[in-house]
Amino acid sequence: MTLLLSICFIVRENQTIEWAMRLRVATCIAEALDYCSSEGHPLYHDLNAYRVLFDEDGDPRLSCFGLMKNSRDGKSYSTNLAYTPPEYLRNGRVTPESVIYSFGTVLVDLLSGKHIPPSHALDMIRGKNIVLLMDSHLEGKFSMEEATVVVGLASQCLQYEPRERPSMKDLVATLAPLHTKPDVPSYVMLGISKYEEAPPTPQRPLSPMGEACSRLDLTAIHQILVMNHYKDDEGTNELSFQEWTQQMRDMLEARKRGDYAFRDKDFKTAIDCYSQFIDVGTMVSPTVFARRSLCYLFCDQPDAALADAMQAQIVNPEWPTAFYMQSVALAKLDMHKDAADMLNEAAGLEEKKQRVVKGS
Question: Domain Protein kinase: where (predicted)?
Fold first, then answer.
């Protein structure tokens, strides 16, 4: 199966997704999670909108990265605490009910077109402010009756007590009848050209990093990331003296061990150490995500590498390296047109950055 773009990438490009397509996404993801559960994989880790990808026909797919158990006993959330299931904050464990909670946050994203913390979304739902919750781009272009059903599902999924949340089969049963326009191809509803019809992307001059990525030269990319160290993380985290707890010191020690392993090309150890740093969630580092992405590529896990490169972009949306790493991962997934597009976008960001530096 060839994956194309994440739903968040399409939103970032200001392509409004019509209501019928949002319903299709919600239904397909619920069906995918229900299928995984029936096949003995009920735990999908860190479910969020960035795990929703589209294939060359524009059909929604769920990244398999969430099925990879990258921590012990189901402990693998690395999201913003505001979006983390309450029970995970209590005991650090992911359960099938936690997946339902996370699915609720995806429903809120689809309804609103942006990230709204679950507590705020619930306040709006309790206040019957459904219209305020809805994406303003959908004004007059959606069924209030259908929206009310989806909002109700989101509210049920986001309940504090796990036992009060619906089952995935209940979600599928409720969403499936809402799946309208079955004969309209997804790529038409998304307003994108089919993969094979897309025109060639004009290429920009490439930097050493761009050249290395275009060649899929992982060794050269590794040398550049080692040389750049953490210079692009400046300003990402500003911590007060009071925040330097023992947990913080342990987390930074884990990152240091990861850096040593990364430098020495011990990529499996680097993944473990960087995962310890990321899982705490107190600090965010685009460089750590980029480095772990490269580690996954060396370990022949391009899907996980793509997920980390996307996370690096979330932390720093204008960072060329995040786009370069996505380009390499996409190429490893045989998505060569999308890899070329991402490479070109990374080069464009570098040009923009250089112009700003020269103008300052």
Answer: 1-179
- Contact by Cβ (8 Å): 28, 103: no
pTM of the model: 0.58
pLDDT of residue 197: 46
CA distances from 119 to 116, 126, 159, 161, 224 (A): 8, 11, 10, 14, 42
* CATH code of the domain occupying 208-235+244-359: 1.25.40.10
Total residues belonging to the chain: 360
% of residues, the chain, pLDDT over 70: 82
Beta-bridge partner residues of 5: 54
Q: Active-site residue among 34, 46, 308, 338? A: 46
Rounded to a whole number of angstroms, the distance between the first and last alpha carbons of the chain is 46
What is the dihedral sign for C-alpha 80, 85, 91, 92?
A: negative
Mark whether 334 is an active-site residue.
no
Positive or negative, the CA dihedral 200, 206, 211, 213 is negative
The predicted pLDDT at position 295 comes to 97
Token pair belonging to 302:
């391009």
Please name the fold of domain 3-197.
Transferase(Phosphotransferase); domain 1 (1.10.510)
CA separation for the pair 243, 239 (Å, rounded): 6
Residue 4's pLDDT band (cuts 50, 70, 90):
very low
